[in-house]
Amino acid sequence: MKGLKMKRLSLLPALLLAAVIPAGTQTMAQTQTNGSAAPPAPPVAKKVPRTSEVHGVKLSDDYFWMRDKKNPEVISYLEAENAYTDAMMKGTAELQERLYKEMLARIKETDTNVPWPLGGYLYYTRTEQGKQYPVYARRRGTMEAPEQVLLDLNEMAKGHSFMAVGDFDVTSDTNLLAYTTDETGYREYSLYVKDLRTGAATKIAERVSSVAWAGDDKTLFYVVDHPVNKNPYQLYKHTLGQTGADQLVYEEKDEMFGIGVERSRSRGYLFLTSASHTTSEVRYLPADKPGEAWRVLLPRESGHEYYVDHHGDRFYIRTNEKNARNFKLVSAPVSDPKRENWKEVIPHRPGVMLGGVEFFKDFYVVSERGNATPVLKIYDFKTNKATDIAVPEPVYNISMSTNREYDTDKVRYSYQSFITPASTYDYDVKTGKSELLKQTPVLGGYDPTLYKSERVYATAADGTKVPISLVYKKDLKLDGSRPLLLQAYGSYGIPSNVTFSSNRLSLIDRGVVYATAHIRGGGDLGKEWHDQGKMMSKKNTFTDFIAAAEYLTKAGYTSKERLVITGGSAGGLLMGAVTNMRPDLFKAVVAYVPFVDVINTELDDTLPLTAGEWEEWGNPIKSKENFEYMLSYSPYDNVAAKDYPNMLVKTSLNDSQVGFHEPTKWVAKLRSMKTDKNTLLLKVNMGAGHGGASGRYDALRETAFDYAYILTQMGITQ
Questions:
Q1: Active-site residue 409, yes or no?
Q2: Tens of pLDDT along 455-477?
Q3: pTM higher than 0.85, yes or no?
Q4: Whether 655 is catalytic
Q5: What CATH number should be reported for the domain holding residue 78?
């Protein structure tokens, strides 16, 4: 979710600007030539009227033409927007450089993560000063042994503007590595198998989203995405040394469902999960019998989600059947796992989300969440006794780390907070003690005692208490004088975790209060919290955020004049909706890859993600009620002739999750209708996807750009 590096305007061809700036308007190039101090004129997109009718409602879209990124005129417009943004941000160049250098100075550039054991090897990634990407490597038995480089992303990235590794799966005999890479940011991963004895790599397939080795170390199952809508829909079997095409094992026919394949930590079973946003179905296969047919554990039932793991002679099933909205855990014999044989292990508990269960030989680990607070519980198989992993702070995040081995007495987990840097621990199940293996270094003398983190609650219009997590430099006076950055997400049942960022210190050390609103639609307080902020209740997400902003101003944490808000993707939809609803409440808005063209996108099931998302937002094609409700909040459709706050909108040309055209159209429409003189900037990364730049130094440059914008909006220029 980042932008491009600064680009010199003089490199842009004159015809590029002519395509989008009306005749008679002084261009930025002309302004520089004649020495005028007048600000540059923003690009003005042409209007090409397009009308349609849905459920008796006429829709008009003057900027539909912007969807086609193969159209040179579209690219010209994007380049002109980048040129305008760079020109408007030119005065922050020194601040950007200062921010970049101080953020870089906090990072240990040459570093190694905590190695994780598997099959007699220690696997790890490391970084080297001056290099954009990590190196994947391993050593046999000890970190003192010779290093074997598995993947050097710096070499792999040569000739590409983007590089990311998706799957990384080693055979049980440790000889073969299956891995996937994305070279554009469009989430189209190519699958390779590398012989770790010879170093030879072979390309197996394209558009691969998950992989799993069978027990024979030569059969590889992989899932392929649909070529148009990107839905993961086909399972193939590849056998090493076999000639001819790979075998299509299963194809998901329902476009609402996507599939994924994985192997249990026990190494005993392979699972193929078909899932929509509300329903799932699991097939299983003994890992040592890759030639057998996959069997369905329980046929899909509308509204029933269940997920399966393996231990010994039983399957363990996390299920939300029979009013267990927050999930419960049951087990069933592998020999006959039909529902009649299910036995309850952990009951459903209102207000506590059973988020995940991971199985080891002698114990299992349960991830829970209640009141926006995560918990890890260790259950002993012999005694069934549960022990919470202790944490030192009231506002934090704890989660499972890399645990590949089944027969172990250790659980590796990650811990962090707004104040405590990301820390990797091993928990000894026998002694009940945690050992700190590594805490991410923060160079330059970071002192956590200088900061304070707390949780407060805003009251929504319906009386719901909305948690807000905050961090700031101590000695805060609640007089409204501090600037504040408020962020939120609030969709898909995904919680907004409290995490540490050394980059964020560049804001907090300048007096900024940083806040996360745990609004409905997210998963911070369980599935009910999600349910209350989706479909026909989606507006609760927006009003919760507004309530949080109003609380923070009334309580004196900030003022409207110094309040900046930010969100990305579905959180970008949030930014668009609340800005339409309460533009007076915010000084500035930063929207990353924002999902703002809700109606047009959800009406087009050829676009990536659309069909599956109907269970989150509603289906405007089949349901008039859904259509009218979605139309009432869709940011693009509700732009009006009124004053808006200052805005920075960021997108990427290769984004497959939120098409670049959505924020681009939104900015064009805002420009044509808003009545204020506030700045409206669009920054487009022309060589990345949903997450922005893949190189760590490029990403840091983009963060410096964002922070420079945010700080100047808050009145901070140094």
A1: no
A2: 999 999 999 999 999 999 999 99
A3: yes
A4: yes
A5: 3.40.50.1820
